[in-house]
């Protein structure tokens, strides 16, 4: 009887302390990663977020579809495009 009571108490404590245990394990893993690689994960995450903000802040100018078509098929500026002829059926 006492065995079941002790086992239930252990499971209850584990259930209540699970978030604290996971945070502690995450901190230990980050410390090990930082020590092994010399990279601070928090700084890397801040850099990634700053890069995303700077990229999303750029204003793209609107292009008229006619101008886009002219640029795409302008043969004077680019030799990337080739002319294709339809084959007779």
Could you explain how this protein is built, in words?
It contains 3 helices and no strands. It has 89 residues and is mostly helical. The radius of gyration is 31 Å and the shape is elongated. The mean pLDDT is 78.
Through-space gap between termini = 90 Å
Number of helices: 3
In round numbers, the mean pLDDT is 78
Portion in helices: 55-70%
Question: Which sheet architecture does the biggest sheet show?
Answer: none
Give me the strand/helix succession: HHH
Compute the CA-based radius of gyration: 31 Å
Give the overall shape: elongated
The low-confidence parts are none
- Total beta strand runs: 0
**Beta-sheet strand percentage?**
under 5%
Task: Produce the secondary structure layout.
Elements: H1 2-37, H2 41-56, H3 65-72
Characterize this entry briefly:
With 89 residues, the chain is an all-alpha fold.
